[in-house]
Every structure is written in C-alpha cells, then in structure tokens.
Amino acid sequence: MAKLSLFDRRRRRVRTALRSVSSGKPRLSVHRSQQHIYAQVIDDKDGKTLAAASTLDKDLKDKGNATREGAAAVGKAIAERAKKAGVSAVVFDRGGFLFHGRVKALADAAREGGLEF
C-alpha cells in the first residue's frame, strides 16, 4: 500500500468524521487552488450537486481570485444559491485544507449568508 501524503490523510480523516455526523444533511465541499476557490453543496444520497460557486463565475470574477475577499464572495454566493435550492443546513467539508485564510473566509461568509453548519 502506497504511503499517503499528509493532505490525503487529512482529507480521509475529515470525510470519515463527516459521515458520522452528517445525519443526511448535504455537504458543503470546498476546494482551494493557487488561483481560485470552489464550493459545492452536494447531496451524497443521490450523488447530485445542488449548488455551486467559484471565483471562475462571471459575476464573481472581479471580486479577486486568490484573495480572502474573493473567497468571501464565493461564500455569500454559495449560501444564496443553496437557499434557492432549498438547503438551509449543511456539514462543512474542508477536504484536506486547513481551516484558516481563504477557507475560513468562505465558511464565515456562508454562515453570514444564512447557511447553518
């Protein structure tokens, strides 16, 4: 068996913990790259994406790509789109990313936008 990177070990640990506490809630999954940040609300029962937002969206492109301001704009947008899809409570899946900087800014903005987690 190949040795997993620290990132992959963190991601597995986070996902395993989420499965035990999710109780059927959709998952707010975050991916952070060097240039952009992406967020999706995923229903794992049906395997469907209910809402998505990223700094690549046309209305969010001018907010700043690799900045906290851009991440906050994505957080507000994902909260708005999730509400429109009928989702008010989610579990936050940070993947293997540490909860600070852009990931924390996105989470705080999503909470301010009305998502509960």
TrEMBL record:
GO terms for molecular function: 5S rRNA binding; structural constituent of ribosome. One of its GO terms (cellular component) is cytosolic large ribosomal subunit. The keyword Secreted does not apply. InterPro entries: Ribosomal_L18 (IPR057268), Ribosomal_uL18_bac-type (IPR004389), Ribosomal_uL18_bac/plant/anim (IPR005484). Keywords: Ribonucleoprotein, Ribosomal protein, RNA-binding, rRNA-binding. One of its GO terms (biological process) is translation. This is one of the proteins that bind and probably mediate the attachment of the 5S RNA into the large ribosomal subunit, where it forms part of the central protuberance. Belongs to the universal ribosomal protein uL18 family. NCBIfam families: L18_bact. This is Large ribosomal subunit protein uL18. It comes from Sphingomonas sabuli. The lineage of its organism: Bacteria, Pseudomonadati, Pseudomonadota, Alphaproteobacteria, Sphingomonadales.
